[in-house]
Write a structure and sequence with these properties.
Strand content: 15-25%
CATH architecture of the largest domain: Alpha-Beta Complex
CATH class of the largest domain: Alpha Beta
Number of strands: 11
Largest sheet: 9 strands, mixed
Distance between the termini: 54 Å
Number of domains: 2
Helix content: 25-40%
CATH superfamily of the largest domain: Spore Coat Polysaccharide Biosynthesis Protein SpsA, Chain A
CATH topology of the largest domain: Spore Coat Polysaccharide Biosynthesis Protein SpsA, Chain A
Low-confidence stretches: 147-157, 311-323
Mean pLDDT: 78
Shape: globular
Length: about 325
């Protein structure tokens, strides 16, 4: 029989910071979460392939040299011992008590639930946090793409949203909290995706298991120095498109995915001239036309060979308006 005096201390919250395939700032991220003077009942994990030592004595460094970002997230969950798990990436900085606010809300929910903080830019403006699942109907709607292009993005002047937590279909796993049982119920993040699409697919499976997904507006997390959408090249758009189509096939099957791909090709071909004009107007300079033509030709399959993308690019780009 185990001696009660030698039993390991109870861990209420495990904070897991993924620093692999992310160009982040792990010391700032961990410090914002209280790793410099950790309270009782908390543990800190740093999943990285860096050779440097842990930034704080209380942080347990876990070296992950193989696999993509989904594999690093799975390692973080497997190594955590807490009843609650906060999963975040090293390019996020949390506002004080953000985790406590999210846990307090989820503790009052009777059904299995997972929550994301409201993601903000460095200047405090709201970034898009909630996402809808890609579907055949959304691709067949000719106004959907034009509406996304015409709407001013959250990072250009919208203040943080306040009010009660609200349900969403999906969100990025940039700063989320859930009980351990929820991660065990939904399963691991699946590898093979780029630009955070593994998070959207995980939320889809969570919905199939009856897990409610919420965004908590009162909990804020800042994304440090995201790359602007206008700097995305054709290769990035091709990789985003491939990840979206791969996720649709994994969730709905091959036949549905074939129809989904066909609808996307028809939409891009029909909307190419107008989208080029809109890109020029939005960019405000002549190179916008060349970028627009190259991007949409790549999406239509004309440009089949694209250059390899650096691993750390996938956390720095704004891919939100693509889905």
């Amino acid at each position: 029989m185990c001696d009660a005096g030698n039993a390991p201390p109870r861990v209420l919250l495990s904070v897991a910071v993924v620093d692999r395939h992310v160009r982040g700032y792990p010391a700032r991220c961990l410090e914002s979460l209280g790793a410099s003077s950790p309270p009782a009942g908390m543990e800190y994990l740093w999943i990285t392939d860096a050779a440097s030592a842990s930034p704080f004595p209380a942080v347990r460094k876990i070296v992950a040299r193989e696999g993509d970002r989904a594999a690093a997230k799975n390692i973080a969950i497997a190594e955590s011992r807490g009843e609650w798990i906060l999963l975040t990436t090293s390019d996020m900085v949390a506002r004080r008590h953000a985790a406590e606010v999210m846990i307090a809300f989820l503790s009052g929910e009777s059904d299995p639930s997972v929550a994301s903080a409201q993601i903000l830019s460095e200047n405090g403006m709201r970034r898009r946090t909630a996402f809808a699942f890609p579907s055949l109907m959304s691709e067949m709607n000719p106004l959907a793409r034009l509406r996304r292009l015409s709407v001013v993005s959250d990072s250009r002047g919208r203040p943080p949203r306040t009010g009660r937590p609200y349900r969403v279909e999906a969100f990025r796993a940039a700063f989320l909290v859930a009980r351990r049982e929820v991660f065990d119920l939904v399963g691991e993040f699946r590898s093979g995706y780029r630009f955070g699409m593994e998070d959207i697919e995980w939320c889809w499976r969570a919905g199939r298991h009856g897990v409610a997904r919420y965004v908590v507006p009162e909990a804020h997390a800042f994304c440090l120095a995201p790359q602007e959408r206008g700097r995305l090249g054709p290769a990035h758009h091709v990789e985003i498109s491939r990840s979206i189509e791969r996720m649709v096939e994994a969730c709905h099957g091959r036949k549905y995915a074939m129809l989904f791909r066909a609808a996307r090709r028809v939409k891009w071909m029909g909307a190419l001239p107008l989208l080029c004009v809109l890109d020029v107007v939005r960019s405000g300079r002549s190179p916008g036309l060349r970028r627009a033509v190259a991007r949409h030709c790549a999406l239509l399959g004309i440009l089949r060979d694209v250059e390899a993308l650096a691993d750390d690019a996938e956390s720095r780009v704004r891919w939100e308006e693509m889905i």
